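S1.2 Input.
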Amino acid sequence: MSDGKGAPGYPPQYGQPLQKPPPGYSAVPQHQPYGPPPGAPMYQGDHPHFQPQMGPGQTQIQVVPPPQTFSEPPPPDYMTRAIFTTVCCFWPVGIFAIMKASEAKNAYARGDFQRAREHSDSARRLSNIAIFAGVASIVVSMIIVGVYVGLIMTNMRSY
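S1.3 Output.
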């Protein structure tokens, strides 16, 4: 356990005897710094394998918390709009819209309403940007094709 620089096994771990500290360290602690003192009973109430001892005639009651209910309705996540814009409009921005819509749904499930609203607004904004970029790219493509066809028709008349 020694790294060649200090005393072996320093700092002391729970259950190990205290040893002299390496040069440059302060005085030796008078108690073990980690865990309960030796011989102390271990509390196991939250341990997954702990089974309380039941007396004769006693029954164990298991308390189940009620399902989580939220006071405010979930913000729209705009997932369908994000998927539509990814498939039909402008996919580079649509992918980010899908990610934000998913984050909005996850934030609401955690109970983080403020973050859910922020991600919902981002998903809506990104979906709108993807729609406008898709429409703009179609319009620009139509203009380019129109100019190209016009030039071809002009050149054919001159022959």
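S1.4 Remarks. The mean pLDDT is 78.
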